[in-house]
Specification:
Blueprint: H1 18-36, H2 41-54, H3 56-59, H4 63-66, H5 68-71, H6 73-91, H7 93-105, H8 109-124, H9 129-146, H10 152-165, H11 174-190, H12 204-219, H13 221-225, H14 236-239, E1 246-251, H15 262-265, E2 274-280, E3 283-285, E4 299-303, H16 306-316, E5 318-322, E6 339-346, H17 362-366, E7 369-375, E8 378-380, E9 394-400, H18 401-408, E10 413-415, H19 429-445, H20 450-463, H21 471-475, H22 478-496, H23 499-508, H24 516-531, H25 536-554, H26 558-570, H27 580-586, H28 593-619
Antiparallel strand pairs: 1-4, 1-5, 2-3, 2-4, 6-9, 6-10, 7-8, 7-9
Helix pairs in contact: 1-2, 2-22, 6-11, 6-19, 6-20, 6-22, 7-8, 7-9, 8-9, 8-10, 8-12, 9-10, 9-27, 10-12, 10-27, 11-25, 11-26, 12-28, 19-20, 22-25, 23-25, 24-25, 24-26, 24-28, 25-26, 26-28
Subcellular location: Membrane
Membrane topology: Multi-pass membrane protein
InterPro entries: Cit_transptr-like_dom, DASS-Related_Transporters, RCK_C, RCK_C_sf
């Protein structure tokens, strides 16, 4: 299997037809839209689906085929698994495991890292890995702060460990489920016996090796490469460099603001500033204070830069008193504090994605002020109202305790810290765990398809009270569902027009100077690079048909090539945008784009050799 491939196996390249050209153009446009995020990913996917059907004469995609993504078993299975994962989350079982691991770790930095990996990796094999990270971000952040460790040292390993653990089973990640269905469909349509749907533990042995190797890297080289972007001390004002953006002013008796409400106080068309709190006679007033009437002597805390503050003070006759950075009321919460500073991460599927702080009426909706936020590694402190929010953006907010409690229950956010009194349904843990075990057992031991057992599990969770009926719809990340439904027809079009065959033949031409295992490695790396800039699910849909065609061209095992693409797409370490879990830790970890390259690239390269060698050994080429 390590011998060079005969040139005769390559054959002649098929000619480029009009149909192929149309589909290639659509693929190129899709990639550009995914990379630039000019439209939300799910909207792009639906646009592609509609275009494929409109151009049916060239794409060979009928209306039935165009809509097939919605009824695809992979889409329904992912939907069901998201609901099951939410049931596990609401029971609190993963959080409780995380707390036990935190107690074990204490202040020992190596134990903290080991606990993060041990709590995340195995759990991600049996619960969709994206919700696992969303569940554990606050647990691990608290572990870091309490243990005197920079959260930057633990949060990226949290994301990476979830991806590694997701390769333990079929249900660990939506990518595995989609790859399984795609392989089965192509095998049936092309009559390729080697291609079949993955069983529950089809690649667990290789996944375990990948997890161990990845964990060893994260514990040694990776830990050394990780920066300490966020200080161990829990001081958000210093972390976000807010000292020059928070100031106190005293309202003079001659000020034109006297008699106006707080919401009328500042001309937002002219000045980029917010009034965060009002102090009168030693009493503090915080959100909601919009309708509070300003009186002489009131002390206002204003969020703005120094230059704008000077202009406001001059126009409105305000006396400057200085920055309130030492004010305990603006520090993270204590038992006596009336308000709290906390970080919120925008969840995938959040209703705020694509909105601005202004269009979403954030302040009135959540009784909270946004002091700053991080987006794709950039900290924004000015002109925030008009910037569109994206998945992974991290907001630094100031809000009363009761507002924080409400925010912790919202599916729109991941709180970077656990609430003091989390509302878990611990009495439902036995039912939640039994349901997951039942789903896995039925799909493994009985002749029941995973989609059937997963849907049965959803019914069981509702029947046992783990989930309430209305929470089923809140559990689903509809962005992922529409993304799957939209890109699946694109993969079908690539096959039916012969585009996959052409691309496969081109890649197979590397067999002239590479052994079969070398061609397999080329596919692994190509998929890794593509996944780094677009959705992992989209890369699987596009790459598996090409990989199958290339394997058939060179006379290799197509199933081995499918596995290489699957592993590569499910372990995207090199960029923060290649996988949702990387986005979830981007802001709370204070990372820069280059941090993912520095830590993730060596790991990606290491695992490329480990994975490809493992596939060649276990499945042969």
């Amino acid at each position: 299997m390590f011998a060079s491939l005969p040139l005769a196996a390559l054959g002649d390249l098929p000619p480029v037809t009009t149909e192929m050209a149309v589909v290639f153009v659509l693929v190129a446009i899709t990639l550009v839209l995914f990379v630039t995020e000019a439209l939300p990913l799910d909207v792009t996917a639906i646009l592609v689906m509609v275009t494929l059907m409109v151009l049916q004469d060239w794409t060979n995609i009928s209306v039935t085929e165009g809509l097939s993504g919605f009824s695809n078993p992979a889409t329904i299975t992912v939907l069901a698994m998201l609901i099951l994962s939410n049931g596990i989350s609401r029971s609190g079982v993963v959080q409780i495991i995380g707390r036990y691991m935190s107690a074990f770790a204490g202040t020992n930095k190596h134990r903290q890292l080991a606990s993060t990996i041990l709590a995340t990796g195995p759990a991600s094999g049996f619960i969709n890995n994206t919700p696992v990270v969303a569940i554990l971000v606050p647990v691990i952040s608290d572990l870091a702060h309490k243990g005197g460790t920079s959260p930057s040292k633990l949060l990226m390993p949290l994301s990476f460990a979830s991806m590694l653990g997701g390769m333990l089973t079929l249900i660990g990640t939506s990518t595995n489920i989609l790859a399984s269905q795609t392989a089965e469909r192509i095998g049936t349509e092309r009559g390729v016996e080697a291609l079949h749907a993955f069983s529950m533990f089809e690649f667990t042995h290789l996944g375990a090796i990948v997890l161990v190797v990845g964990a060893a890297y994260l514990m040694t080289i990776g830990y050394w490469l990780l920066p300490e972007r966020v200080p161990p001390e829990e001081d958000y004002l210093a972390e976000y460099d807010m000292q020059d953006y928070l100031s106190e002013v005293v309202v003079q008796a001659s000020s034109p603001l006297v008699g106006k409400t707080v919401s009328e106080a500042i001309d937002e068309q002219r000045f980029d500033a917010d009034v965060l709190q009002l102090v009168r006679g030693g009493e503090r007033f915080i959100e909601p204070i919009g309708q509070k009437v300003i009186k002489p002597g009131d002390v206002l805390t204003i969020r703005t830069d120094r230059e704008t503050l000077g202009a406001i003070a001059n126009v409105d006759d305000l006396a400057l008193t200085g920055a309130p950075e030492t004010d305990p009321e603006l520090e993270p919460s204590t038992e006596e504090a009336e308000q709290t500073l906390v970080e919120l991460v925008i969840q995938s599927g959040s209703s705020l994605v694509g909105e601005t702080l202004q269009s979403s009426s954030f302040r009135g909706r959540y009784d909270a002020n946004v002091l700053a936020y991080r987006s794709r590694g950039e900290t924004v402190r000015q002109r925030m109202d008009e910037l569109k929010l994206r998945v992974g953006d991290t907001l630094l907010i100031q809000a009363p305790e009761d507002s924080i409690d409400r925010l912790s229950q919202s599916p729109d956010f991941i709180l970077a810290h656990e609430p003091d009194e989390p509302d878990y349904r611990t009495e439902k843990i036995p039912y939640a765990v039994a349901t997951i075990v039942g789903v896995i057992g039925a799909a493994t031991l009985l002749p029941i398809n995973i989609v059937v057992s997963a849907l049965a599990g959803v019914v069981a969770m509702v029947a046992t009270g783990v989930l309430r009926p209305g929470e089923i719809y809140e559990s689903v990340d509809w962005n992922v569902i529409f993304l799957l439904a939209g890109v699946i027809p694109l993969g079908i079009a690539l096959e039916q027009t012969g585009g996959a065959e052409l691309l496969g033949a081109l890649v197979a031409s590397t067999g002239q100077f590479l052994p079969a295992i070398g061609v397999l490695w080329v596919f692994y790396m190509a998929t890794s690079l593509i996944t780094g800039v677009i959705s992992n699910n989209a890369s699987v849909v596009l790459m598996i048909p090409v990989a199958v065609e290339a394997s058939l061209e060179v006379g290799a095992n197509p199933f081995a090539f499918v596995l290489a693409v699957t592993f590569a797409a499910s372990t995207a370490f090199m960029t923060p945008v290649g996988y949702q879990t990387n986005l979830f830790v981007y802001g709370p970890g204070g990372y820069k784009f280059s941090d993912y390259v520095r830590v993730g690239m060596p790991l990606q390269l290491l695992l490329s050799f480990v994975t490809v060698a493992g596939i060649a050994f276990f499945w042969t080429l």
